[in-house]
Amino acid sequence: MNPALTSQHIPSLKEHFDWLFSYVPFVANHSHLFGAILLLVVALIVLLGVATYVMAGVYLERKIAAHIQDRVGPFRVGWHGILQLLVDGVKLALKEDLCPAAADKPLYVIALGVVLCSAFATFVVMPFSWAFTVADMDIGVLYVVSIGTGVLVGVVMAGWGSNNKWSLLGAMRSVAVVISYEIPIGLCLIVVTMLIGSLSTQRIVLSQAPYLMLSEAGRWIVNPEVSNWGMAHWFAFRYPPFLLIAASCFFVAALAESNRTPFDLQEAESELVAGFHTEYSGLRWAYFMLAEYADMLILSMLSTTLFWGGWLPLQCMNFHTPDAFVFWGMVLVLIGYLAWLWTRWYIPMGEWMLIFVQAAIIGVLALLLYFLPSVTWFILKALAHVFVMIWLRWTLPRPRIDQLMYLCWKVLIPIGFANFLLVGFWHVYFP
Amino acid sequence: MSQSINQVLEFSPLKTDGMTINMGPQHPSTHGVLRLIVTTDGEFIESVEPVVGYLHRCKEKIGENVTYAQFMPYTDRLDYLAGMNNNWAWAMAVEKLAGIKVPERAEYIRVIMGELNRIASHLVAIGTYGLDLGAWSPLVYAFNEREKIMDLFEKTCGARLTYNYYRFGGVSKDLPDEFREECGKLLAGFDSFLDEIDTLLSENYIFIKRTANVGVFSAKLALDYGLTGPNLRASGVPRDLRRVAPYSIYDRLQFDVIVGHGTKGILGDCWDRYDCRIKEMRQSARIVRQCLKDLPEGEIKTKLPAVFRPPKGHVFFAAENPKGELGFYIVSDGSTKPARLHIRGPSFHSVSILPAVSHGVMIADLVAILGSIDIVLGEVDR
Amino acid sequence: MQYIRDVWLGLKTCLLGMGITIRHLFVEKNITQFYPEEKPKLPTRFRGVLHCDIEKCGGCSLCARACPVGCITMATEGKGKDRWVTQYDIDLSKCMWCELCVEACPDSKRSLVMTREYEISVYNQEDLVLHFGRGPKPKDVPSADVLPDPACVAADRATS
Q1: The CATH number of domain C50-137 is 3.30.70.3270
Q2: I need a labelling partner for B103 at 20 to 30 A (CA). Which of A11, A284, B187, B267 fits?
């Protein structure tokens, strides 16, 4: 039976470790100690992974922004600017560690710590793969939302402690926005948890794969009795179109939560110079950027878990499921789009070759998708979210603070509630 | 949705102190070195006081110490985004003073250059306006188009920003051979570029929400403060010097005077001013096409005596610059240098309207208003 | 209802804008010029650093008088055709790049031109002053009937 829909136990990471340790008697006797150490190591790996992601994320952002604007972005440091972030990190570390004389020094310093800790603490419940969740708590999703709000406390401390009117203004705006947008996030969360009956992230992902079941050895195998509909089981595609709307609302609210354009009034460069982190320079500013990108990733990962199938693969070679048709259909659409671009713009042969090469690379990588392990699927999906966030940043202007509030309270929340009610009715009366 | 400050104060039982914020002179969205002393109550503004003078370069005093021809490069640096138009206004003022005639070909070339520079100036205006409101990409697209115009100018007179191209009685150099072809290419791609800008900015819902019904200048207010150019026309007053008091060959050219209609909100809001500039660019492109078609052969400059002494007297002449009406008031005492020179910079008057319209708006709206009146500090401070 | 129309418009215009940026993202029209490996191709009329061909210069000082900022300093010796330009300095730190001096140079001479040179960063401000002058005028060579005979000079030297 699929344990996601019952209350049956899902093996946690610690239990996987115990199974691993059982082969080494010495370790098995002290499994608590070694289990704890290994868990710590795993958590550190996740942390380092996030730090690496931030470097890659900032690099990608600069490159994507540049190409959107017909430029090239970083180019000189390393091949096509790959080492740019490393060099930037070194430069920031070597800068003078300023603190404004009139600033509240303890607050100024601790704010950073609060922001970073809250941001990184949420990664422990993210289900990276079928075995790899650092700590699969029963309240997983709730944990993410509540600890993630700790970032806000840090932001307010930073704004106040900087002793700068602009920072304070930015921090106040940030508080207003983030608190308001917690509600649509919560509402979209509730829709999903209502359908499953659990807040645990691993359970949420597994309920999007009813064709999987737990064997006696504690491994996941495909249950041949249950029909495998692949992608159609993902929550974004169930109860259409309501859950898709919920996914979009979640995405919009996630943009606001992580202070990304179009909701980046808190650091609106053209108005407030840099908002709450105006007075932070050097490595401290780098930490704030780290926290912002980590925030983006947290919300992307949450969205992936809730709506887009978590670590479940896109079964693009399995033509018994709709996955393959959808996937290859999208590839065909992309090819058609490029062909249309060519006819419309009469792109010269050189540039057309470049586009063709890009499309070929994407196609080849697409074939490799069949062989990817589930961790990579999870990360790819989260990165796809991040890509859309970056894309939106360089496209849209930013609304005013009261228009942002209007969007939250008068658009997203009614939609969230309506979704909740309608999906609830559908689920109960037409199972 | 924005409430006025009075409504906010009515509901709050607490008495709060206003916060005085200094916007500038170094600030990403004051277009140059403008300092605004803003007193706010939370997010709502009580008063704005512009402090100008950070770019004052004593142009009018310099004008008394150099000859008329030597002052031409200084006019480039007034509204440095529209150098050709400034040159043109100065040339026409002195031609009016001394009664100099300009040959036909020179007139056509002057119009082509002036209108191309109008397009370039408006491109900067809308690009930076998008940037102020958070849209990063349209800026680069607009500047890319502007590069093409500046390349044309570079081929003609050798400079990209401070042209010093116009002379009394014509222009200094003839158009190069490849000008017609390159200008044609530029104009051919211009409409599709404007369509892109329309999709990215003008019709974008967020942009409309930020600019419509914000910073409404009624026609009376605009006229009271001496606003000219697109700022005035967006409030519904159809005053375009090229139509009302045509100079050069504008009486022969077909173009529409763009007047705001309150399409997305109240007449005279920021969106109207922005839209006026977009539509004016299309009209300028239309004018350039006509001129290129009808360009006659001939001389490009009337010969003037080596030592140029205009007759005694005084003259005021205003031309329709991209930012408004640039006016020169010259008092001549018959010598080679002006006795007194006054420059009426349109941006100066545009800045003066800020205190009148910013009571009760939010800071974000102030940025939107400032961007929409399109000032250049070179003109404000001279 | 207005409300639903607003929401729909908001979504639609955002998606349309995204379509434009994604088009720019994939169609590579790079406008960055990789300076200093790629130098810009400058047109012939480009107003770069001034250069004076002092051989052609007649020392009339029209350029110095035409300059609005007075960056040309000239000193000459002699008059008319024999005028010798001892000092011709152009101070680039004052130059406005307006080309009025080049226009003032008479057609018969055309000694002053603006080149296509624009990379003029220096470490000392004195290096920004260009010196074209010829220095003091060389004295005239005496005529043959007053010069000593070289053979006699050699003979005197040998015997003394």
Answers
A1: yes
A2: B187
